[in-house]
């Protein structure tokens, strides 16, 4: 004779539940042992998801060659250089984040391609990041992405028209656009 499965019901009656707020009773099924296994597994699954996302947050900057960006607090202390930056870059922390996550358009839009890598913003960084090196790597990655066609041509053209490319990149960008247009300017 097969054993019948009985539906699990909590042992407490509704009237014996502790009162959290006047007139509202809390159902505390989690105090029973049978329900703890499910809760424990859900907690483990949640922790696994959190761990995996943190691993990706660390792995991506390491793989792209800008591991220092992991340590940026995004405290915005580097914004103090706004008036002193020779390239007139207002938001250096935005460039760091863009380099960390590989957002090429964000890097271009915030003036990363105009950076002269003079190091004027380094003294303001509270964690002493090598900002010229980070920005240089970001510029290299943007140019690689452009040449591989991962940045839309219209965005490159728009950035060129708005003056978002520095002098050292203009010739290369114009040559790439000419090549994309089949030799027509």
Describe this structure in words.
48% of the residues lie in helices and 3% in strands. It is an all-alpha fold. The protein folds into 2 domains: 18-62; 67-180, no CATH class. It has a two-stranded antiparallel sheet with strand order 1-2. Helix 2 (92-101) crosses helix 4. The radius of gyration is 27 Å and the shape is elongated.
The counted number of beta strands is 2
Shape: elongated
Query: Could you give the order of strands across the largest sheet?
Result: 1-2
Residue windows where pLDDT falls under 50 for at least 5 positions: none
**Helix fraction?**
40-55%
Mean pLDDT: 81
Strand content: under 5%
Main beta sheet: strand number and arrangement?
2 strands, antiparallel
What integer value in Å does the Rg equal? 27 Å
SSE order: EEHHHHHH
What's the number of helices? 6
Based on secondary structure, the structural category is mainly alpha
How far the N terminus sits from the C terminus, by CA atoms, comes to 86 Å
Q: Provide the domain count.
A: 2
Supply database-style keywords.
185 residues; mainly alpha; 2 domains; two-stranded antiparallel ribbon; 6 helices
């Amino acid at each position: 004779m097969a054993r019948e499965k009985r539906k699990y019901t909590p042992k407490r009656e509704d009237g014996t539940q502790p009162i959290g707020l006047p007139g509202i009773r809390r159902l505390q099924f989690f105090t029973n042992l049978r329900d703890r296994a499910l809760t424990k597994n859900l907690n483990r699954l949640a922790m696994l998801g959190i761990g995996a996302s943190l691993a990706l947050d660390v792995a991506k900057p390491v793989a792209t060659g800008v591991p220092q960006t992991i340590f940026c607090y995004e405290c915005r202390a580097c914004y103090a250089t706004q008036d002193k930056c020779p390239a007139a870059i207002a938001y250096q922390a935005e460039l760091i984040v863009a380099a960390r996550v590989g957002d090429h358009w964000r890097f271009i839009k915030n003036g990363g391609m105009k950076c002269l890598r003079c190091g004027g913003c380094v003294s303001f960084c509270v964690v002493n990041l090598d900002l010229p090196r980070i920005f240089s790597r970001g510029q290299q990655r943007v140019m690689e992405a452009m040449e591989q066609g991962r940045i839309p041509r219209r965005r490159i053209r728009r950035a060129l028209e708005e003056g978002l490319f520095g002098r050292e990149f203009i010739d290369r960008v114009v040559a790439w656009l000419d090549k994309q247009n089949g030799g027509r300017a």
